[in-house]
Design goal:
The complex is a heterodimer of chains A (about 210) and B (about 10). Chain A is an all-alpha fold. Chain A is about 70% helix and about 0% strand. In chain A, helix 1 packs antiparallel against helix 7 and helix 4 crosses helix 5. The mean pLDDT of chain A is about 95. The longest helix of chain B is centred in the middle third of the chain and has 7 residues. The chains are: A mainly alpha (about 210), B mainly alpha (about 10). Chains A and B meet through helix 1 and helix 3 of A and helix 1 of B.
Chain lengths: ~210, ~10
């Protein structure tokens, strides 16, 4: 495992912990898209079914388990424990616009036509667009709490570090997975606009608000 | 193999 990969995983974990701590401390999930969090729970569930079929390493098993737990706890806090604080009105992205094309594409473009491979491919495609309901919500309300922007920053950083990981692996092992790389590039592009706002506003101590 | 390798990533 290379440095980009491990830092990518740490960023990913940190993003999920930041979100959980934000919701838990403030006892509120205001400004958080429940739909994006449900999509991430679906992403992990469909990708980590190999927990039952293959063993890679203790690290791999533990991290997959932790990611699944974080995703499900977040969804529970939003739609269960703190549902009264959930901004349903502004979380209005139409999920079928993502789920239908992603499902179709995972049947058409995969490495092999087996249930586990199709589900893995589905999870990769879905992850690349899962943040869109959250970004849509921010553009609709025109603002985001600073802690929410930290969450998005670490999530975006994870994607960027995974790109570096794939470049590294291609150079050293001649390994690459086209589906993962293309999806990874797509999702990193979604964060570019946000990264710009994060650096120019949030890091200078201002709240992220759109004109 | 590459097919195994990608499942090792998270």
């Amino acid at each position: 495992m290379n440095i980009f990969r491990i830092l990518g995983d740490v960023s990913h974990l940190l993003a999920m912990i930041i979100l959980l701590v934000k919701i838990w401390r403030s006892k509120s999930c205001a400004g958080i898209s429940g739909k994006s969090q449900v999509l991430f729970a679906i992403v992990f569930t469909s990708r980590y079914l190999d927990l039952f079929t293959n063993f890679f390493s203790i690290y791999n098993t533990v991290m997959k388990f932790v990611f699944l737990m974080c995703a499900y706890i977040t969804v529970y806090l939003i739609y269960g424990k703190f549902r009264k604080t959930f901004d349903n009105e502004n979380d209005s992205f139409r999920l079928e616009f993502l789920l239908i094309p992603v499902t179709g594409l995972s049947f058409l473009e995969n490495q092999s036509f087996t249930p586990l491979e199709i589900l893995w491919t589905f999870s990769i495609y879905l992850e690349s667009v899962a943040i869109l309901p959250q970004l849509f919500m921010i553009s609709k309300t025109g603002e985001a709490e600073t802690i929410t922007t930290h969450y998005l920053f670490f999530l975006g950083l994870y994607h960027a570090l995974y790109l570096a990981n794939w470049i590294w692996r291609y150079q050293t092992e001649n390994y690459y997975d086209q589906i993962a790389v293309v999806s990874g590039v797509v999702q990193t592009i979604f964060y570019c606009d946000f990264f710009y706002l994060y650096v120019t506003k949030v890091l200078k101590g201002k709240k992220l608000s759109l004109p | 193999s590459p097919k195994e390798s990608k499942h090792d990533e998270l």
